[in-house]
Specification:
- The chain is an all-alpha fold.
- Helices cover 64% and strands 0% of the residues.
- The chain has 6 helices and no strands.
- The protein has helices at 2-12, 18-44, 62-70, 73-76, 100-123, 141-181.
Length: 182
């Protein structure tokens, strides 16, 4: 997507030399990754009690589940990269479905993930403010580069949140069954 953003700017936006669009696309992409990392770091520092799976945000309604199924979550969820390695807990596969402690941690990590993704979604558009020449009217990179980068990031952020919310009811059922067995 970075290439498409840079090429479209090179073709249709003659405000700057071509290399400015290439460098700007790379810099805005790095900047949005930094924003996402800062959001994730701050949210991970919050106490676990705020991420109780009983809260409404973590329990999708039947309409939400139907929406997730309509957009084909089951078909593409395996294709979305899972970045659990940063928290040392992968969420792309249930390793121990009968262990209540493991499932409790899985649910907690999923709840953290939902909030991280939902908070990162609007905050990724902050990168538009870093086109400092826009304030003097000398640049439109905030619209032609930063906005598309933020939109791509928003799509890439919301998809894992949909997957996590879609999977949470099943995880909670597994957890409750494993508790009854113990």
């Amino acid at each position: 997507m970075m290439t498409i953003i840079a090429v479209l700017n090179i073709i249709f936006n003659a405000m700057f030399p071509f290399y400015v669009y290439i460098v700007s696309t790379i810099l805005f992409t790095i900047l949005v990754i930094i924003v996402d990392a800062i959001v994730a770091t701050i949210i991970r520092k919050l106490p676990e009690k705020g991420f109780d799976y009983h809260k409404k945000i973590f329990n999708p309604s039947k309409r939400s589940i139907k929406f997730y199924e309509l957009i084909g979550v089951k078909k593409w969820k395996e294709k979305v990269p899972e970045l659990g390695m940063f928290t040392h807990f992968r969420k792309n596969k249930i390793e121990d479905p009968k262990n209540p402690e493991y499932l409790k941690r899985f649910i907690l990590e999923a709840c953290y993930g939902v909030i991280i993704h939902y908070v990162s979604l609007p905050l990724s558009f902050i990168i538009m403010l870093f086109d400092f020449k826009m304030y003097t009217g000398e640049s439109n990179l905030y619209l032609t580069v930063a906005l598309p980068v933020a939109i791509v990031n928003a799509v890439l952020i919301v998809l894992p949140a949909f997957i996590l919310r879609y999977n949470l009811p099943k995880l909670i059922r597994l957890y409750e069954i494993s508790l009854k067995r113990k």
